[in-house]
Amino acid sequence: MNHQPDLFHNTIALEGEELKEAILACERQDDQVLIIMQAIGSGTPTDVLNKFPGSILKTSVRRALTDLVKLGHLRKTNIRVPGPYGKKEHLWEVRTQR
Known about the structure:
Number of strands: 3
Distance between the termini: 23 Å
Order of helices and strands: HHHEHHEE
Helix content: 40-55%
Number of helices: 5
Shape: globular
Structural class: alpha+beta
């Protein structure tokens, strides 16, 4: 994994086109998913998919979320919310630095 997410933390609250440009500047899907999650704080795979600039499979979003948990950037919660087809999805959140 490229180390760009360690360099870009959305501490300046980028939104809209600026956030999209920052996401596109990253080369890998994991990096892009991390930037989206840092911007929204917590969300489901569907939330990330809806904010992703360009095309990505939902299974790729889930894989990226799982990889980012293993790397210590995210945490999968026990909270489940209704997804787009009535099936519940887990909520994921950015780990806070201690």
